[in-house]
TrEMBL record:
Source species taxonomy: Bacteria, Pseudomonadati, Pseudomonadota, Alphaproteobacteria, Rhodobacterales
GO MF entries: glutathione specific gamma-glutamylcyclotransferase activity
One of the Pfam families matching this protein, by short name: ChaC
UniProt EC number: 4.3.2.7
Protein name per Swiss-Prot or TrEMBL: glutathione-specific gamma-glutamylcyclotransferase
An annotated GO BP: glutathione catabolic process
Amino acid sequence: MTMWVFGYGSLLWNPGFTPAETALGCLQGYHRSFCMRSIHHRGTEAEPGLVLALDEADQAACHGLALRVRVGQEAEVLDYLRERELVSSAYLEKCLSVGLSDGRLVEAVTYVIDPDHVQYCGGLPMEEQAQIIASAVGGRGANSDYLYNTATHLTELGIKDTDLDWLAERVRGLGA
């Protein structure tokens, strides 16, 4: 069976594996949001950062990148993704339908936020998000770098995300 992975944040610019194919895709029922406190990669337990997650919402849609895993590498990629994405159990691993830009519908491994997890922080005001992102640093570097890399790659893919664009401009304005 063909394995796909849906990328909407750091998987866009750092998938950690070489996909056999990439395609623009859209996931219905979720939106990309800085709704997860990062205590490992982009912040610490003492000073959490924020990372993107897919937050479930009616009428929502998230545009991102579907990555097809090379045949024979499925188990290796899944092990890698689980180690990377499930480090604190704030994400739930789901297999969800993603509509590709060429009309295909694929089932993709997708990491969505667990709204009952302690790290969930959906609905933070945009200014508060900007303040946190501007100052947080974790094991994988500055929270602002994560934001800038994601915003840049979305733009390169032709995906418009007005919230991320606003946050990137605001965080730069805060000197990060």
